[in-house]
Each structure stands twice: as structure tokens, then as C-alpha cells.
Amino acid sequence: MKHLRTKIAAIVLTAAMAIAIVPATAFAAAPAPNPDTATGDSLVDPNTRQVLLDYYDSASAFLVIHQGELADDVRIYLETMRAHAYDVLMHGGYEGHNESIAEMRVALSVAQAYVNGRQPDPNAEPEFVIGSEAYNRTHPLLVSQDMANSIAWTYATTRDLPAEMIQQRILGLFVDRIYTAALGRPSDEAGRTYWVNSIISGERTANDVIITILQSQEFVGRNLSDQEYVTALYKVFFDRSPDTQGLNNWVGVLQSGTSRSDLVQIFTTTQEWHNICSYYGM
pTM score > 0.70 for this model? Predict the structure, then answer.
């Protein structure tokens, strides 16, 4: 335990020192403001501001997804740099933005190194985190455009909130999506709160949400045909309607004797479903 604490302290110290000693050119985030339009430190170049926003939202997404895996020192360091970045976004000028970009780059790269079991490198470029707008902009989408936009929009409109509250918003989106796809209505507040808190605590999983709702009297009472049932599963799990081949294939599986509950279990193992869970931080 003592060795672990020493290692954690060294990681944070490395990060703090890096901001002070790494040359400014290593953190060149964007071109300087146009001298014809910018005066002093009051105006911030849009490119520079966007870089800070990208790192800020990636830090939020990282904390939502990995905060339980981080040592306290590393988590607090990232949260502190994130809080400073928010203040800069609200009130800081060009120099403040560049300083905060340097801080966020180091803090996020150190946190990612910690989670991945790597030695922290203060010069490393951190990765944009799944769910953020920057990730969607720089990576092939693994979910629908609407879903990606909805999750990214949530991160972008909750920048004044702590990571725990952002996580509640993100998971609330997930629960609402399942209710709407399966039952044709949004979740009620009590149901949404129960599932969100249960997922955060680790008592329940994303699969538990779906299985419970599909076994509910409300869903069973819809008396869906096999074709309608498979269509519902596609919308619940994949956020889309089935293609003709997939629909016919799974209807055939049901009609050959596979139970509906077994088919649900098969859907929970698909890569497409795992991709969607990743975007929601699960």
C-alpha cells in the first residue's frame, strides 16, 4: 500500500512539474489571435477556445466513465484542473486559455496513463474520450448520429456540474431511451432515479434495465408478434429498425424454438450493444 501511495504521489508531482518546465511550444494549441481583430488578452481566438472546450468535455467524460478507477490523488488533480478550466472559459483571456490547455493536457494524459497502467508522460497527447463531441468529430461513429449528438450535447451543457451529476444526466438519457424504445413512453422520475442510482452503485447493469423492462407486465401486455418483438429488440438494443435480413433471421430463430428470453441474452452479447453502452459510460 505504501508503494502504491508513493507511485500515485509521483504521478501527480510529475504532472504538476510538467506544466512548469515543459516549453510553451509543446502546448501550442492553436494559432495566435489575428492581430487585426484581437486586442490584448481580452479576445480569445475561436480555435484556442475550442481546444480548451474539447479537453474540458473529454475530462468530464473521463471522470464519468473512470472516476471509480482513479486513485484519489489523480482524480482530485484532474477535477482541480477541470474546475480551473471552467473558470477560464467563463472569465479568462487568451493567455489564460493557453495556460489552461497546458494544464488539461497534462492532467488528462496522466489520468489516462494511470487507468491504463502506463508510466505517465507529461509530453503525451491525451486521447479524446468516447461520448464527447471531440471524439465524435475525430473517430468513426459506433452509434447513430442522433445518439452521439445527444450524449455530446449533454456533456457540453453540463460544464458547471460535478462529474457525479453529469453521470446522472448521461445515465438518465440511457434509461429514457430504453423506456421509449420498449414501452413507447419516457421513464417516470421514480423509475429513472432507481435505475440510474442502481447502475452507479453497481447493483444493476445496463442489461438488467432491459431485461426487467422486457419482462414487465406493461411490455408483455403489448402482445407483440415475433416480427414486432424482434423490431422492438433492435430499437431497444441498437437504437434503429432492423434490416430485412436481420429481421427475417431472428424471426426464424424464434420460430425454430428459441425463447424470447434467450434471444434477449443473445442481443446482450453483440458488439453493437457494447458500443452503445460505451458511449453512455457503462
Answer: yes
